[in-house]
Write a structure and sequence with these properties.
By secondary structure, the protein is of the alpha+beta class. It has one helix at residues 48-61; strands spanning 3-7, 32-37, 72-74, 77-79. The protein is built from one helix and four strands; from the N terminus they run E-E-H-E-E.
């Protein structure tokens, strides 16, 4: 078992060090960022099952009744589950 973190994209303004992997400027091309850590402390680029669970969690959190796509920034790049 591991742990997955869901993070909002940087909002701009002062330099945001929390998302050093994002490319270029203050604009982002994703809705959320995902970081995952395995139980042994390693960080995989992404997890297929994990990102699907995360998308479901976000949909419930945002109370969307109509299905929609989310763009997640991962170490493997932008993923749309």
């Amino acid at each position: 078992d591991g742990i997955i973190f869901l993070m909002n994209p940087p909002t701009g303004g002062a330099s945001d060090e929390s998302d050093s992997d994002s490319a270029g400027g203050s604009g982002t091309d994703y809705d959320y960022a995902m970081r995952m850590y395995n139980s042994d402390g390693t960080e995989p680029e992404m997890c297929g099952n994990g990102i699907r669970c995360l998308a479901r969690f976000v949909a419930e959190l945002e109370e969307h009744s109509v299905p929609r796509s989310y763009k997640f920034h991962t170490l493997a790049g932008t993923i749309i589950p």
